[in-house]
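Supplementary Methods, section 5.1.

A reviewer requested that the exact input to the structure prediction be made available. We therefore reproduce it here, unchanged from the version used in the analyses.
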Amino acid sequence: MEISRTTKPRSLRAGDVIEVRSEEEILATLGPDSTIDGLPFMPEMLRQCGSRFTVDSRADTTCFYGALRGMESAVHLTGIRCDGSGHGGCQAGCLVYWKEEWLRPVDPSRDDARTSRPIALAPPVRRDGCTRDDVFRAVHPPESPDGEELWSCQATQVRAATRPIRSWDLRHYVRDVRNGNLRPGTVLRRILPSLLFMYQGMSRRRLPRWLQVASGADIPLIHGTLTRTPSVDLDLQPGDLVRVKSRRKIRTTVDRKARNRGLAFDVEMTPYCGKSMRVKRVVRQIIDEWTGRMLRLPGHCVVLEGGVCQALYHGLCQRKTESYWREIWLERETPAGAEESARAAAAQS
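The structure derived from this sequence is encoded token-by-token as follows.
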């Protein structure tokens, strides 16, 4: 006779199928400012109510301006990014945070139930509640002193919805392994480069020059030497095939802060150097996460399909921000050229 064993319930993790609760249920969980624990429910999320999605990752470890932050009881859903329709047409394309109170797990099939642990989520807490109109009004905080229009969204409220993770506190790696976000081997491969990157940032601020590695520059090296940076107009459009230039070539286009006309080439963009990618969209305006102001980006700037921050040097956070690319860092490529590049990459590996 088969002996049944009690299986301890678990939280949501990558791969779980969930259903977003109804609009009425979600509004009842919110405060008058349309938030839970400082995290707003945004107008762009309303259309997902009642639909099923797959959990992409837990949002336990996230970031704000490169600094790690910890968030409670939230996940990211596969493919659900903010389209900016409720925020003045912002084109940042941020991955949306979903509090577990806004979700319900979908019962697994009978076969799956025999082999997987059941999911147990805390029941939604009924708060003061808000209306659909409140959700739309919350996107506009009070105007700035000079009368400029400001915006509020999940990205601008990350600080309010999270707690800081100290640079020397490595427990978030353990938590992300336990919750299924990371594999132990991934952490072991990336922890030393991440610690070196953090040391470089700290050394620039606090240590004498003789204790700095490479004068405190980011490693891998991405800075240049220019005082005035050049531009190239490729007139790239969504769907165009491009090849990312080598890091050596890109360094010849940026200043000592790794910027080209004010836009930084981030160290998290280096894994894509030499790769063939497609243009996803042209970016002209984004909301500044720090101030809430709408920024118009000077010059042509594009997002590439799959070109997201992997946080290889920033604690392996799960925010997956889409990187912005100057056209001078790219070159057009034909499909035949892409196949040749792929063969060359395979031969080198």
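The helical segments are 23-29, 110-115, 132-137, 158-161, 171-178, 184-206, 247-251, 335-348. These observations are discussed further in the main text.
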